[in-house]
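Hi all, posting the design record for the shared folder.

TITLE: backbone redesign
STEP: 1 of 1
STRUCTURE INPUT:
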């Protein structure tokens, strides 16, 4: 198999393994890893739907569906930006804010467990390589 295709397949498999581990950790919250990532990102400050889509490397329609689920559960609100009514801004509710803090603590622990097979240097190197890859593809 071609080296590049093999790497793409390994990245996909690794992402699926991480996703499964993190989703298992989140079952008590009744949210997905994707929803948790969005909650934590909004917890860093107000963000538009477009910026969230770019940040998550995900199509806007997918972000809209995930945010709708978070809104139904009372974690976030959407509002149109006063200065530009075309932009939808996401804000955590009180429930979303407290949940976001608990999620971050839980996911940090679980991610640490998942990545414990790597040395500190291996994690640093892998992180640099993945940032390089995502950085190139996030902007295209």
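Okay, here is what came back for every position:
SEQUENCE:
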């Amino acid at each position: 198999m071609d080296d590049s295709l093999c790497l793409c397949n390994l990245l996909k498999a690794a992402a699926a393994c991480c996703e499964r581990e993190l989703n298992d950790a989140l079952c008590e919250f009744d949210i997905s890893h994707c929803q948790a990532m969005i909650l934590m990102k909004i917890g860093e400050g107000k963000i538009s739907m477009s910026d969230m889509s770019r940040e998550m490397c995900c199509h806007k329609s997918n972000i809209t569906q995930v945010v709708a689920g978070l809104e139904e559960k009372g974690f976030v609100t959407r509002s149109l930006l006063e200065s530009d009514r075309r932009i939808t801004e996401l804000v955590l509710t009180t429930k979303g804010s407290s949940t976001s803090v608990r999620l971050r603590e839980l996911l940090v622990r679980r991610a640490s467990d998942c990545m414990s097979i790597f040395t500190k240097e291996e994690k640093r190197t892998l992180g640099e390589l993945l940032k390089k890859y995502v950085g190139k593809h996030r902007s295209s």
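COMMENT: The mean pLDDT is 89.
Let me know if anyone wants the other runs.
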